[in-house]
């Protein structure tokens, strides 16, 4: 008789607890215990150097400080840049180039010398936070894969010898293609031909509390799956519930492609029995220009993706599988690398041109202090240097004609007529058209002869349309500031909801224990 009474009471106890906790989190999601990153999630930038007339190291660092960029990743360990970064509080990931993996993986002495030359010589004045060993070795240089882990272990031993292993992490950036069947995320798994190396890498990351570095590009997912993956999902645009991607195994809803990619990494790690390694997104971005085969590589799409990415990270949104963990992301990249080989998009991933003028202005108001060049600052559209007069004249004629720009101020005798040259007149006309179109990035192109700048091009008595706009819109600037404050309030509200959720769970535990104690009293 005792057993017949005990079963229903105990069953009700279990049912109560399951129902209660299912309101807090899905009971279908497997237990993956990822270590919470001790630092706040951040947005950094990659700095490639295939740029003509690249800024000097001193000017580069000054530019990073001006833009309030606090985290960068280099594709090497450039000594001049590392020297210039000293005492700036800018945190940097340095890299071992792919062509050095063989030597470092074959010799502990070479690894120790590399650490001494590229790390110990600069740290702690220069805040080196991590070492990226190679870049996408497993997929781009598979012949070096057998020496990847020996190189990582040798470099780590050298860090230990220098007593820097607690301050500086080591990992290797991987391409998203190491994961097969990435959606739904719960079915994702690593390419089995790489499982031996990846298992050792994950064991190393777990042991040293290093992240798994991943290069994740929703742009390529979209391009390879057009008609299946909607563009809005790829760009973080708001979705109706019917457009959200749903994992049928976990019932988790995905509103953007990047979150799905990150969770596919976590599920893949779980399949190799690793549940305590965080994902660091070392590359992500969207190109602003492409050839005829890449029609979605546009300024507007690049602006939308990177602006929404920054907001997503700064808002600490996490992922559906891990809402408590927000991966930090390095945007690819800071500058357009105009020396890169075709296709055209390869040279157009940057936030800025090589001369430090913005390719487009990110919409990041209210998302922390990352990037000074925000759309809340006034912007202007001007003619680029080095364009032949005939091409510039054609663009000027269009702006003043079909474009309906106000070109009255560049007529003879008017305030902006001098200096009387095509470039000066084109800059005024371009800015007039740009301001008339509401400052849309796509309205400052003119077939590649114009660019956006935050520097007021007005001179003497010649006041550009953008400057006139500033003087007439003081109230709008004030409203923008208030809007930024509203975003801060929403951010704090999101944190409060997480706290309430934790209280909710603890309250449930207490109720379960209380109910269980009553059962024991009744049975006794």
Average per-residue pLDDT, rounded, comes to: 83
* Strand-residue proportion: 5-15%
* Structural classification: alpha/beta
Task: List segments where confidence is low: pLDDT < 50 over at least 5 consecutive residues.
Answer: 1-28, 473-505
First and last CA, distance: 13 Å
- By DSSP (H or I, 4+ residues per run), the number of helices equals 16
Order of strands, widest sheet: 5-4-3-2-1-13-12-9-6
Radius of gyration: 27 Å
Molecular shape:
globular
Q: Count the strands?
A: 15
How helix-rich are the residues, as a percent range? 40-55%
Major pleated sheet: 9 strands, parallel
Kindly summarize this structure in a few lines.
With 524 residues, the protein is of the alpha/beta class. The protein has helices at 2-22, 57-66, 79-84, 101-106, 108-120, 137-140, 148-161, 195-208, 218-224, 231-234, 257-271, 299-314, 389-400, 422-436, 465-471, 474-523; strands at 43-47, 71-74, 91-96, 127-133, 169-171, 174-175, 179-180, 189-190, 212-215, 245-246, 253-254, 279-284, 329-331, 380-383, 450-453.
Write up this protein.
There is one protein chain. This protein is 41% helix and 11% strand. The N terminus is likely disordered. A nine-stranded parallel β-sheet has the order 5-4-3-2-1-13-12-9-6. A two-stranded antiparallel ribbon has the order 7-8. 38% of the residues are buried. It is α/β, with parallel strands linked by helices and 524 residues long. α3 links the parallel β2 and β3. It is globular. It is built from 16 helices and 15 strands. The two termini are 13 Å apart. The longest helix is centred in the C-terminal third of the chain and has 50 residues.
């Amino acid at each position: 008789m005792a057993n017949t009474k005990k079963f229903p009471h105990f069953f009700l106890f279990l049912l109560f607890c399951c129902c209660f906790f299912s309101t807090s989190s899905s009971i279908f999601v497997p237990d993956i215990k990822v270590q919470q990153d001790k630092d706040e999630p951040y947005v950094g930038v990659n700095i490639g150097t295939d740029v003509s007339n690249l800024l000097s190291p001193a000017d580069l660092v000054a530019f990073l400080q001006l833009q309030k960029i606090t985290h960068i990743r280099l594709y090497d360990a450039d000594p001049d840049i590392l020297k210039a970064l000293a005492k700036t509080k800018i945190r940097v990931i340095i890299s071992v180039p792919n062509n050095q993996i063989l030597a470092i993986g074959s010799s502990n002495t070479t690894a120790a010398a590399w650490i001494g030359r590229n790390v110990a010589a600069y740290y702690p004045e220069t805040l080196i936070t991590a070492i990226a060993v190679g870049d996408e070795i497993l997929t781009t240089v598979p012949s070096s894969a057998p020496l990847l882990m020996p190189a990582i272990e040798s470099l780590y031993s050298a860090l230990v010898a220098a007593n820097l292993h607690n301050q500086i992490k080591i990992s290797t950036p991987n391409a998203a293609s190491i994961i097969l069947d990435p959606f739904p995320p719960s079915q994702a798994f690593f390419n089995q031909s790489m499982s031996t190396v990846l298992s050792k890498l994950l064991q190393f990351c777990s042991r040293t509390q290093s992240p798994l570095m991943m290069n994740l590009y929703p742009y390529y997912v979209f391009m390879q799956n057009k008609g299946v993956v909607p563009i809005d999902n790829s760009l973080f645009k708001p979705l109706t519930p019917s457009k959200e991607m749903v994992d049928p195994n976990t019932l988790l809803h995905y509103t953007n492609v990047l979150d799905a990619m990150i969770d596919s990494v976590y599920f893949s790690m779980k399949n190799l029995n690793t549940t305590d390694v965080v994902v660091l997104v070392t590359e992500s971005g969207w190109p602003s220009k492409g050839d005829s085969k890449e029609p979605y590589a546009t300024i507007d799409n690049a602006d939308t993706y990177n602006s929404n990415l920054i907001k997503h990270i700064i808002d600490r949104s996490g992922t559906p599988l891990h809402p408590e963990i927000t991966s930090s992301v390095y945007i690819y990249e800071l500058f357009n690398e105009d020396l890169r080989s075709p296709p055209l998009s390869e040279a157009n991933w940057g936030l800025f041109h090589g001369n430090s003028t913005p390719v487009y202005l990110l919409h990041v108001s209210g998302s922390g202090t990352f990037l000074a060049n925000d759309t809340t600052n006034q912007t202007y559209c001007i003619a680029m240097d080095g364009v032949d007069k005939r091409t510039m004249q054609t663009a000027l004629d269009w702006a003043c004609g079909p474009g309906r720009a106000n070109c009255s101020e560049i007529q003879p005798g008017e305030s902006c007529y001098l200096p009387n040259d095509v470039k000066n007149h084109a800059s005024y006309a371009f800015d007039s058209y740009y301001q008339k179109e509401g400052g849309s990035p796509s309205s400052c192109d003119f077939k590649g002869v114009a660019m956006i700048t935050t520097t007021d091009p007005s001179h003497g008595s010649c006041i550009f349309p953008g400057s006139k706009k500033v003087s007439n819109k003081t109230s709008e600037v004030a409203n923008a500031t208030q809007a930024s404050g509203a975003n801060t309030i929403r951010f704090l509200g999101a944190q409060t909801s997480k706290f309430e959720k934790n209280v909710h769970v603890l309250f449930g535990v207490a109720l379960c224990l209380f109910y269980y104690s009553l059962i024991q009293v009744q049975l006794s």
